[in-house]
């Protein structure tokens, strides 16, 4: 991308006046982008592998779970092949999320020339070690020209059943344009923190003269302590601005009191608020705590739907068909207080329609949860739900 000393467009042009009601951090929005929604591993993994295999200069890959298996081996080999071809390849994975990643697979990548760093290794005697502070992001940047982020990890859980996976449902996005530089700079910050070798910072997104589309995008992160609540504030701003609809799809939906209040107030304004959550979660304590939360929200008119079948791991939302977000942020204590997260928000009616259409398709695979559903639960599940809700801060 060709840098310049001037912004690509004025700030007023980035976020039109009629859409500013939905937007936080106006100075960080980027114009001139393209964004594409990717559904589950069937679409996301091939798109990411294609980008990796086409890399000519540099690959930056940051992921929470990188594990052995069919997909892990495919990604490791693709990254290794590019490193052998002379491409600079950097891989950053979380030590706890990727605990099952074998030393042999890591060594194969290193032997090929891949630079590998581990975020907060499980070594309590080291300086700055923190078992709770995890890197939950999923970021891939190739040649500073194309980027990916969302909810998918490198695991067979997200592969289709036909490919030997578990067929988890998840959502990711592919982006082009100045926003890619924001993702690249965010990766570099985590890479250096984790002990990776220093390298020149990519140009700032606001100095890039390489528009790839017409979509205004915002990278949302919580890298510094003072930004811990930035993702939450972005959601709240959109929820409070909603006039017609709020559609949320979230894997671990345990919203705090402030978020619950914003959703309830939206219903009182006549906004149609709908939430899709997993019926069967990979974290049973959150599944039980969720039941208690869903009952309370359903009483206030928020429509809760539970996804049938394999785990729904998505973390997305769309408001009024205008403001959309795709990322790694969950409505739980870990995302709010501990994890490093990343997401991309869009202010675009066309992409909003795409998101709304995907939500409608996902509703077809979900069953509504209401007071009647709660009353049919056995007493012991209600007791577990109440107990899990009391300790939700530590889940």
Q: Can you tell me the CATH topology of the largest domain?
A: Endonuclease, Chain A
Shape: globular
Largest sheet: 15 strands, mixed
Indicate the percent of residues in helices.
25-40%
Give the integer mean of the pLDDT values: 92
Full CATH superfamily name of the largest domain: Endonuclease Chain A
User: How many helices does DSSP assign?
Assistant: 12
Domain count: the total is: 2
Distance between the termini: 42 Å
Which CATH class of the largest domain is shown? Alpha Beta
Beta content:
15-25%
| Beta strand count | 15
Quaternary class? single chain
Global Rg = 21 Å
Folded structure, characterized:
The protein has 395 residues and is of the alpha+beta class. It has two domains: 30-214, Endonuclease, Chain A; 227-394, Endonuclease Chain A (Endonuclease, Chain A, 2-Layer Sandwich), CATH 3.30.870. Helices cover 34% and strands 22% of the residues. The protein has twelve helices and 15 strands. The chain has helices at residues 11-14, 40-53, 70-84, 103-111, 179-193, 230-241, 257-268, 284-299, 333-338, 349-363, 371-375, 379-390; strands at 30-39, 58-63, 88-94, 115-119, 139-142, 146-150, 171-176, 215-221, 245-250, 272-278, 303-307, 315-319, 323-327, 342-347, 366-369. The protein has a 15-stranded mixed sheet, with helices on both faces. It starts with 10 loop residues before the first helix and ends in a 5-residue tail after the last helix.
């Amino acid at each position: 991308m060709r840098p310049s000393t001037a912004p690509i467009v004025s700030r007023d042009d980035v976020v039109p006046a009629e859409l500013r009601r939905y937007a936080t951090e106006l100075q960080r929005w980027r114009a001139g982008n393209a964004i594409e929604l990717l559904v589950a591993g069937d679409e996301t993994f091939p798109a990411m592998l294609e980008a990796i295999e086409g890399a000519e200069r540099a690959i930056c890959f940051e992921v929470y779970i990188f594990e052995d298996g069919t997909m892990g081996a495919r990604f490791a080999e693709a990254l290794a092949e590019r490193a052998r071809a002379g491409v600079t390849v950097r891989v950053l994975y979380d030590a706890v999320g990727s605990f099952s990643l074998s030393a042999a697979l890591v060594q194969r990548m290193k032997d090929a020339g891949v630079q590998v760093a581990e975020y907060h290794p499980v070594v309590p005697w080291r300086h700055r070690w923190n078992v709770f502070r995890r890197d939950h992001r999923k970021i891939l940047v190739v040649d500073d020209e194309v980027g990916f982020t969302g909810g998918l990890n490198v695991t067979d859980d997200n592969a289709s059943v036909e490919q030997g996976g578990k067929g988890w449902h998840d959502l990711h996005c592919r982006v082009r344009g100045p926003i890619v530089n924001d993702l690249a700079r965010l990766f570099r910050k985590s890479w250096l923190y984790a002990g990776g070798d220093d390298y020149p910072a990519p140009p700032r997104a606001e100095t890039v003269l390489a528009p790839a589309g017409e979509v205004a995008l915002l990278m949302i992160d919580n890298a510094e302590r003072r930004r811990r609540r930035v993702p939450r504030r972005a959601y709240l701003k959109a929820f409070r601005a909603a006039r017609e609809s709020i559609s949320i799809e979230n894997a671990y939906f345990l919203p705090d009191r402030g978020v619950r209040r914003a959703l309830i107030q939206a219903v009182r304004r006549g906004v149609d608020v709908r939430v899709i959550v997993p019926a069967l979660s990979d974290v049973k304590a959150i599944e039980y705590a969720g039941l208690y939360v869903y009952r309370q929200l359903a009483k206030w008119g928020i429509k809760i739907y539970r996804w049938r079948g394999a785990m729904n791991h998505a973390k997305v939302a769309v408001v009024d068909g205008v403001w959309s977000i795709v990322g790694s942020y969950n409505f739980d204590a870990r995302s709010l207080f501990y994890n490093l997260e990343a997401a991309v928000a869009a202010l675009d009616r066309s992409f909003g329609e795409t998101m709304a259409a995907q939500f409608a398709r996902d509703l077809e695979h979900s069953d509504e949860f209401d007071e009647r559903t709660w009353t049919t639960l056995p007493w012991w599940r209600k007791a577990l739900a109440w107990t899990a809700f009391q300790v939700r801060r530590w889940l």
